[in-house]
Specification:
single chain; 339 residues; mainly alpha; MetI-like fold; 0% strand; transport; transmembrane helix; membrane; BP-dependent_transpt_permease; MetI-like
């Protein structure tokens, strides 16, 4: 009589790679103990930096003198009466820094929000509907991607600012924010399109469509809530791009001359020969504040990336386990297995 028993499948009895053990352990902890990821050091640091700078830009202008008051002595170093000294025209640098921070934050928020709306329009709609609409929106997105960003912003800003009939709006912070917003959405649209295209195939989205839900309701109820971490990351990226872009435009003389921003402060310092006059207190504070604000927003963005991509959150723990294994005298292969 023939033996119908199936051959035994060899079972691996060797040690499990430390990276796999770390991933399983952290995943179980995330499911059972905390539904949301633990606040990391980079997230806390980024939030503190951004909150402090934001409060400074919102509240400090109420407690400083007029940033356009030129009755002070010129090029005074930091000291009594002027915390950060004065400019070549007698403007108080601390007062200009307070108002410039508010102006840069305004440009960043408006431009970042506008870029995010355009990215949702061109990315999410293209990824969900597909077909001809996807091809048309993707073509427009690709065209915006291949056009160099800074030259495009410079051309649009220079053209709009010399257009008759706009008045004070032609050199305002709002106009610069709009220009930066309509030129900085393409990269985010590509990311959102790919994610929306993946979510469109999920079971809950298919169930909503079978139930007769309208497409826009499916997008707002089923798609966008699952894109919140990604949308937040893209918004922060847009704010960073806008603040740095405004600083670059202002340094080149294409910024909002009708208002004060950190970029216009740098432009005034450059035209006023602050470096040649050794007036470091004129250009160092706005430059340092731009760098700090960009650092804080980047740290928050990195922390959000860890939420969107769990592998980034598990990788540090796996690396620590491997280092512990090496210190214990056990060799660890590239894939994390202990020999």
């Amino acid at each position: 009589m023939a033996d119908n028993t199936s051959p035994e499948v060899p079972v691996r009895t060797g040690p499990t790679p430390t990276s796999t053990l770390a991933a399983i352990r952290i995943a179980k902890t995330d499911r059972t103990r905390r539904p949301l990821p633990r606040i990391s050091g980079k997230l806390l640091t980024g939030i503190i930096i951004v909150v402090v700078i934001s409060l400074f830009g919102i509240l400090a202008p109420f407690f400083v003198q007029d940033p356009r008051f030129s009755g002070n002595d010129a090029l005074l170093p930091p000291g009594d009466g002027h915390i950060l000294g004065t400019t070549k025209l007698g403007y108080d640098v601390f007062a200009q820094l307070a108002w410039g921070t508010r102006g840069s934050l305004f440009v960043g928020v408006v431009a970042g929000g506008l870029a995010l709306l355009l990215a949702i329009l061109f990315g999410v709609l293209a990824g969900y509907f597909g077909g001809v609409l996807d091809e048309v929106l993707t073509l427009i997105t690709n065209i915006m991607l291949v056009i160099p960003g800074l030259p495009l912003v410079m051309v649009i800003a220079a053209y709009v600012q010399h257009t008759e009939g706009l008045g004070a709006f032609a050199r305002s912070s709002l106009l610069v924010a709009i220009v930066l917003g309509i030129t900085g959405w393409a990269g985010s649209a590509v990311v959102l399109r790919a994610t929306a295209k993946s979510l469109r195939m999920r079971d809950y989205v298919a169930a909503a469509r079978v139930a007769g839900e309208k497409p826009l309701r499916v997008i707002f109820v089923e798609i966008l809530p699952n894109l919140v971490p990604l949308l937040a990351a893209q918004l922060i990226f847009g704010v960073i791009f806008a603040i740095l872009g405004e600083a670059g435009l202002s340094y080149l003389g294409l910024g909002p001359t009708g208002s004060i921003t950190l970029g216009t402060m740098l432009n005034d310092a450059q035209t006023g020969q602050a470096v040649g006059s050794q007036a470091w207190w004129w250009f160092v504070p706005p430059g340092a504040l731009i760098a700090l604000l960009g650092t804080g927003l980047s740290l928050i963005n990195f922390a959000i990336d860890e939420v969107v991509n769990p592998k980034l959150r598990l990788a540090p723990q796996a690396a620590r386990n491997q280092r512990k294994a090496r210190r214990a005298g056990r060799s660890v292969s590239e894939n994390g297995a202990i020999a």
